[in-house]
Histidinol-phosphate aminotransferase
Amino acid sequence: MSQFWSPGVHQLTPYVPGEQPRQKLIKLNTNENPWPPAPGVERVLRNFEIERLRRYPDPEASMLREALAREYSVAPEQVFVGNGSDEVLALAFQAFFLHDAPLLMPEISYSFYPVYCRLYGVEQRTIPLDEQWRVDLDGFEGEHAGIVFANPNAPTGHGHDLESIKKLLQRMRERVVLIDEAYADFGGESAVPLIDDHPNLLVTGTFSKSRSLAGLRIGFAIGSSELIEGLDRVKNSFNSYPLDMIAIEAGIAALADRDYYEHCRRAVMATREHTRQALEAMGFEVLPSQTNFLFVRSTHQPAADIFAALREHGILVRHFNTEQLNDFLRISIGSEAEMQALIEALGEIGAR
Ligand code: PMP
């Protein structure tokens, strides 16, 4: 508490991201990619002429937006970029969700959404997941300021197919439907092809997961030019440079190497399946996942105890200390060797 803070600041409860430990641990807690960025990214960084940093970056990030437009078969005017999808989401909340009605979101979803609601004074109404821990798309109804959900969902991992998303969009035309596709590249279906028929659909994505560039903070949104203009208006009132020069150039290099991207995302999905089988064989309940993480529950031990014992073994996973999620652990998919170490450690702990 401070007398210097604006009154609203006292009420804020900031999002606390997963720990970034200093000591060397097997880090399976923030859904980073075990593969290095594409080789072209290394070339960009090695050959970068430091002298160029005197200049401002391109305020339009045009070349990156054009590269994304090619990747998703849309026009550059339908693409927005920002510092990680967290920032893109924040700008979208300001641009689209400040209406006099509640924002609809799943009860269990990315925990940044409620943080932004508090930050921007947006009322929220949460929709319970169905009995199989899936986002209940039919539950989105009634008067609202907009809809936000992740597809596939985090931290549960289930993704809806395009047909179900289409059905939702047919019912929802008044306000913006924001689909956060941070994890869609690991087996989910992207809603980008639905944008042409739905000017109220905004899809966000990130280079932090399938492109192995979490450290550079590159996020994007794809939607009608009307929505992109809304985001531009908010962004330019705040910081007219969406990304730094290095992020722009590295992002372009990451998109350019399609084979490497395919290789890495397929490898992550294969490791996910090996890990799922091993965990199930040990007796864990593992929710179906179309992401680069698994959401798992032990039928015998409190998740908090397994979390602590794994940490003793030098392995960091994610445990959410909330009533609903208390029984689960979220385990990011690391390398095959890291997942093997996880399985061995769980065996030594006697977890099942
Ligand atoms: N959406 C979801 C569902 C996430 O889990 C994350 C990663 N924590 C993000 C968005 C943000 O990713 P970034 O800011 O790194 O693009």
The chain has a mean pLDDT of 96. The radius of gyration is 20 Å. The chain has ten helices and twelve strands.
